[in-house]
Write a structure and sequence with these properties.
345 residues; alpha/beta; Rossmann fold; 2 domains; 6-stranded mixed sheet; 37% helix
């Protein structure tokens, strides 16, 4: 599984002290000095030279991905490396930048060769090209490429044993999204481990896939970060989803309008028609009336208010259900799981 993507940007790869480092979602320099980066660059160049020497020795013309004449970026073939116990796959652009992928130890990076080249070429050489002089463009490029490669790995490589050897039971891809701070990552952790951790309040900036085994099959939760920067990436992860979960924070009415607009922005996408939807109204435990008084009457009132405010009764192109939850107290979490299974059968 892909864990990290990074970009090394330098005017001249021979000047190893002159480069900028960008990475997502993990900081590859954390706890390390820049010698680690130098080893990556030197290792890449050594492997490229070995390939050139081998091809010259055997009079074999080096095969490279041919680029149309209008392309601005030239991509070399990816190089696998093991550096500081890291399983790394690097690809050089125009001999001045290196894109790197870091995989888990047991992965074979070469399984990703074609998709790595294809996606990089597609993203870099089109009319909406990325500018590597703009840090926002660099971040968008890395996030987009990371999500696409993770999706490829999840759907074509990681799950292959499941389809080959597990002929019974279900496999459900659950796409979990919503604006930042609503409790998505805490929800997935609760479902997977049964635990709730208080320090999960900080909004997550990372895209994550978690697998949850149930007696009847397996659920794959695609947990998407909710900050504005990441929302345009939701469509990259939503493909092939069996069900959508849109989570809102019912205790934060100041952001209801924002949450409503983002929900309907997605529901208007024709390619998503028919996919079942769960609206999870999270953080019931923070509603004062519910805590002080009995739950049933207050929850019914809250449900009606949410349905009305979010125009949920206007959803006609799919099955949907509103479920009020509290990840912190584990309220209705099992009901969400049961509903996922019921709506996808």
């Amino acid at each position: 599984m892909l864990t990290t993507i990074f970009l090394l940007k330098s005017k001249n790869l021979d000047k190893l002290s002159n480069f900028d480092v960008y990475s997502y979602p993990n900081d590859i320099l954390k706890g390390k000095n820049k010698d680690f980066i130098k080893e990556i660059i030197i290792g890449h160049e050594k492997e490229v030279q070995k390939i050139k020497n081998h091809n010259n020795l055997n009079n074999i013309k080096k095969t490279e991905k041919k680029a149309p004449c209008n392309e601005d970026y030239k991509l070399d073939q990816p190089i696998p490396q093991i550096i500081n116990d890291k399983n790394i796959y690097t690809l050089c652009i125009n001999n001045e930048m290196i894109i790197g992928l870091i995989f888990e130890k047991d992965d074979n990076p070469c399984d990703y060769r074609d998709i790595f080249i294809e996606l990089s070429n597609e993203m870099l050489n089109n009319e909406n090209f990325y500018s590597f002089d703009d840090e926002t463009d660099i971040e968008n490029f890395l996030i987009s490429l990371f999500i696409d490669i993770r999706r490829y790995g999840d759907e074509y490589i990681e799950k292959k044993p499941l389809y080959l050897f597990k002929s019974i039971g279900f496999f459900i891809k659950v796409f979990l999204f919503g604006i930042d701070g609503v409790g998505k990552t805490s929800f997935v952790k609760r479902v997977k481990t049964g635990e709730y951790v208080d320090n999960y309040f900080a909004p997550t900036r990372t895209f994550n896939i978690e697998y949850v085994d149930k007696q009847q099959g397996q659920l794959a939760f695609w947990d998407m970060p909710g900050q504005r920067l990441f929302r345009e990436k939701w469509l990259k992860g939503i493909q092939e989803s069996n069900i959508l979960i849109y989570m809102i924070d019912i205790a934060n009415q100041l952001r209801f309008n924002e949450a409503k607009n983002e929900l309907w922005e997605m529901l208007r996408r024709k390619e998503l028609n028919g996919i079942p939807l769960i609206i999870a109204g999270n953080k019931v435990d923070l509603i004062e009336d519910v805590v002080i008084n009995g739950k049933e009457k207050q929850l019914t009132t809250i449900e009606k208010e949410i349905i009305e405010y979010f125009n949920l009764n206007k959803i006609k192109d799919r099955e949907w259900e509103l479920i009020l939850t509290s990840v912190k107290t584990n309220y209705n979490i099992e009901k969400v799981i049961d509903t996922i299974i019921n709506l996808t059968r």
